[in-house]
Amino acid sequence: MNRRIVITGPESTGKSTITAYLADRLILPAAQEYARIYLERNGPHYTFDSLLEMSRGHRQYQHEQVPAAEPLGLFDTDLTNYKIWSEVIFGKCHPEITETLQRENSHVYLLCRPDLPWEFDPLRENPLNREELFERHRQQIEQLRRPYRIISGTGTARFEAAEKAALELIGQI
Question: Which of 2, 77, 84, 107 lies at 20 to 30 Å from 64 by C-alpha?
Fold first, then answer.
């Protein structure tokens, strides 16, 4: 079975930077975060329905960047982010997102702890509840019964921890 290492967690925890680092270090194809591409193109405002549209674009983009034939690849977030995002903002999640997430059984996770300072970005919305969002991610991954490692630390230590954890997860496959 092909595997995807998903780098996930709350905002401003280094997901995109870690994804790029691991892609370079492990020589793996990677898909960056599609929500950022979508929001930069369409503006920062979204609705419950446009979040569903965004999640569909996210999956299509991932499959284009990391083709199904690739045995291993990296994803900067997956539908866990969309599910949690929808639940936090709208108090509900579209069933299509939940059902598709449950079927994505090729995913293993690097969950980034929010121990880096939050950095302003016009597309970021949650500077005050990152610990809560971290726990929601952890609970969702555990509910899905998927392997994961928590990434913490700063600077070089964070990158080294991510690489070590990715290699451990690859070794379990």
Answer: 84
Over residues 32-85, the pLDDT tens digits come to 999 989 999 998 889 999 999 999 999 999 999 999 999 999 999 999 999 999
Domain range list for the chain: 3-172
Quote the tokens at residue 125.
């919305």
Map residue 108 onto helix, strand or coil: strand
Q: How far is CA 24 from CA 11, 18, 150, 159, 171, in A?
A: 22, 10, 21, 12, 19
How much is the pTM? 0.93
3's tokens:
């595997």
Counting beta carbons within 10 angstroms of the beta carbon of residue 68, is it exposed (0 to 12), middle (13 to 18) or buried (19 or more)?
A: exposed
CA angle in degrees (0–180, nearest 5) for 110-157-128 = 60
The pair of three-digit structure tokens given for residue 66, joined into one six-digit string: 């990391």
Q: What is the CATH number of domain 3-172?
A: 3.40.50.300
**Cβ-count burial of 8 within 10 angstroms (0-12 exposed, 13-18 middle, 19+ buried)?**
buried
